[in-house]
Design goal:
5 helices, alpha/beta, 5 strands, five-stranded parallel beta sheet, Rossmann fold, about 130 residues
Length: about 130
């Protein structure tokens, strides 16, 4: 997939998902957008990474073992105020989507993620 992007500094995208295959696919997409990708598999690692990587955008899985994305969202926002968080969920649960947006998520997308739509949302989040 080739997507033309305007020139900009390499934004940093933190990918938080317990599925290694999805993390890899999302990292590949992020790189095609001209961004840097950092990947972690759980909430605790995400809290460390948000401080260390100084991410510009976070892609956050909602349903993860241990600390869920919804529970993690306020902590990420406290550690990195103003950093847009795009929530991803493997279930098309409208209530989860409403909760994510009500808690301050930038957007909510359902897996399998439409990569073109995700690319558009990442671009919007970086504006």
């Amino acid at each position: 997939m080739t997507i033309e992007r305007p020139a900009r500094r390499a934004a940093k995208v933190l990918i938080v998902d317990d599925d290694p295959h999805l993390r890899s696919m999302l990292a590949d997409l992020v790189k095609t957008l001209g961004c840097e990708a950092s990947c972690v598999s759980d909430g605790a690692a995400a809290l460390r990474a948000i401080v260390e990587t100084r991410a510009d955008v976070v892609l956050l899985d909602i349903l993860m073992p241990g600390l869920s994305g919804l529970d993690l969202l306020p902590s990420l926002q406290a550690l990195a105020p103003g950093v847009p968080v795009i929530m991803l969920s493997g279930t098309a649960d409208e209530e989860l989507g409403r909760q994510a947006l009500a808690r301050g998520a930038f957007d909510y997308l359902v897996k399998p993620v439409d990569l073109r739509r995700l690319a558009e949302v990442i671009d919007l989040a970086l504006l």
